[in-house]
TrEMBL record:
One of its GO terms (molecular function) is xenobiotic transmembrane transporter activity. CDD domains: MATE_NorM_like (cd13137). GO terms for biological process: monoatomic ion transport. It comes from Pseudothermotoga thermarum DSM 5069. One of its GO terms (cellular component) is plasma membrane. Its main location: membrane. Coiled coil: none annotated. InterPro entries: MATE_fam, MATE_MdtK, MdtK-like. Keywords: Antiport, Cell membrane, Ion transport, Membrane, Transmembrane, Transmembrane helix, Transport. This is Multidrug-efflux transporter. The chain crosses the membrane at residues 12-31, 37-60, 95-113, 133-151, 163-182, 194-221, 290-310, 322-343, 363-387, 399-417, 423-443. It is found in: Cell membrane. NCBIfam families: matE. It is a multi-pass membrane protein.
Length: 454
């Protein structure tokens, strides 16, 4: 059921949108966590290979971000203005553009993946594991891109529960398929598997994503309230909408590119410290990603509310929503910080078994977890920019946080002073503080309140 977010209690609307989204992302995170758990049973170098591929993949993911962010503001504002016919056209165009862009990106990534993997790691075993995993994920990139858009279409029209159910079902399916595809003999179950190794984890994820896409696509064809796409509409180009889908999200896409590029530099620097440090970073990035779940839930929920209320010219409701998201997000994150500092060894030990890798992981999760507190406020500020369609501030915030704060610190610590790897993890705190300061400065000026894209 779609929901009008321009009416009623802000807190109730925010939790209505955020909690199902959190649940969906929590279950979705099982993809990464389960992958890491089972891949960790192969070796630390296998985890390192997947971590290196992930840094490469996120450089391409920027293409998905450009159209996706554009669609958030376009769908929510048109829905808030009750222009349902146009909302349907935007959803259709989003799916078509995602498929086209992903097809090109997939081909490029498959061609350039081997040299990119070798650039980030000189360990041939790490490179081989990354290629085994990466080829499968790259080939099916169009399915991944379009699946994200089915979720976006539902959320921005106020339907937050169904995407959660779809994401949860595919994630749970992945839990069972992963070991079956990875191992010859499935641990704990005593049955025969396909023995595909690291590639098996990618195949399981692909199959589960296909299930999610087909389900979400059929739902949109059937219709959710006034929102209903058609097969015929998928073959019609709308130049005016297409231009907006490309241009509105460009700043956000560039921001993600800069963020991903900074992460690639980080991975390159970590590579100097060896495979164990890379493996620890791969695991910790997934664990820290769990703390982003409530933040993304509140942020995506707030973005939909901001977009609908700006479309209805209810600016005060939009601003109050952002502050509520910031407060609630920070309270949730505090729980993750406490857990990360009380029992990091137990958590890291689930994925890594080599003592050096475990030691690296403990330091990373303890130090890096504190960056989430500052990120909770910065991400909430971003919801105002994404909901309004004024995405330039998000790009500049990333530039300030990653390129003017984090990377100079990393170069100093790792390349100039050559300090131990522990000092690298403090760079995440420095980056989030810088990003928050810039985001608050722009948010407080209030230009986003007058911005419209519909």
């Amino acid at each position: 059921m779609s929901r009008d977010l321009t009416q009623g209690s802000l807190t109730r609307n925010l939790f209505y949108m955020a909690f199902p989204t959190m649940g969906g992302f929590a279950l979705q995170a099982l993809y990464d966590i389960v992958d890491m758990f089972w891949i960790g049973q192969v070796s630390a170098k296998a985890i390192a290979g997947v971590a290196v591929f992930s840094s490469v993949f996120w450089l391409i993911e920027v293409l998905n971000e450009i159209i996706g962010v554009s669609s958030v503001s376009l769908i929510s504002q048109n829905y808030g203005a009750k222009n349902y016919e146009r909302t349907n056209r935007i959803v259709e165009q989003t799916l078509v553009f995602k498929a086209f862009v992903a097809l090109i990106a997939s081909g490029l990534l498959i061609v350039f993946l081997p040299p990119l993997m070798r650039f980030f790691s000189k360990d041939q075993e790490v490179v081989n594991y990354g290629l085994q995993y990466g080829y499968w994920r790259s080939f099916f990139m169009p399915i991944f891109f379009m699946t994200y858009s089915t979720y976006t279409a539902m959320r921005q029209t106020g339907e937050s529960r169904l995407p959660t159910i779809i994401m949860g079902t595919s994630a749970i399916l992945n839990v069972f398929l992963d070991p079956i595809f990875i191992f010859d003999d499935v641990p704990f179950l005593g049955i025969s598997g396909f023995g595909m190794g690291v590639a098996g984890a990618a195949v399981a994820t692909v199959l589960c994503t296909v299930v999610a896409f087909v389900w979400g696509f059929l739902v949109l064809l059937k219709g959710i309230g006034p929102v209903k796409i058609s097969i015929k509409g998928l073959f019609k180009l709308d130049r005016e909408i297409d231009v907006k889908l490309i241009t509105i999200g460009l700043p956000s896409g560039f921001e993600m590119l800069l963020r991903s590029a900074s992460n690639a530099v980080l991975v390159k620097i970590l590579g100097f410290y060896g495979a164990n440090t890379l493996a620890a970073a791969g695991v910790v990035s997934r664990l820290v990603g769990l703390s982003f779940i409530p933040l993304m839930g509140f942020s995506m929920g707030a973005s939909a509310i901001v977009g609908q209320n700006l479309g209805a010219n209810k600016v005060e409701r939009a601003e109050k929503t952002v502050w509520l998201a910031a407060v609630y997000g920070s309270l949730f994150v505090l729980g993750f910080i406490v857990l990360a500092n009380i029992s990091p060894k137990t958590i890291i030990g689930l994925f890594l078994h080599e003592s050096e890798a475990i030691t690296e992981g403990i330091a990373a999760v303890r130090i890096g977890s504190w960056s989430m507190l500052f990120a909770s406020f910065a991400i909430s500020m971003m919801s105002a920019f994404f909901g309004s369609g004024n995405t330039l501030p998000a790009m500049f915030a990333s530039v300030v946080g990653r390129w003017f704060a984090q990377l100079p610190y990393l170069v100093l610590v790792a390349l100039v002073l050559k300090l131990p790897s522990n000092y690298i993890w403090y760079s995440f705190i420095i980056a989030e503080i810088a990003e928050l300061l810039y985001a608050y400065f722009v948010f407080s000026k209030g230009k986003w309140k007058q911005y419209r894209v519909s």
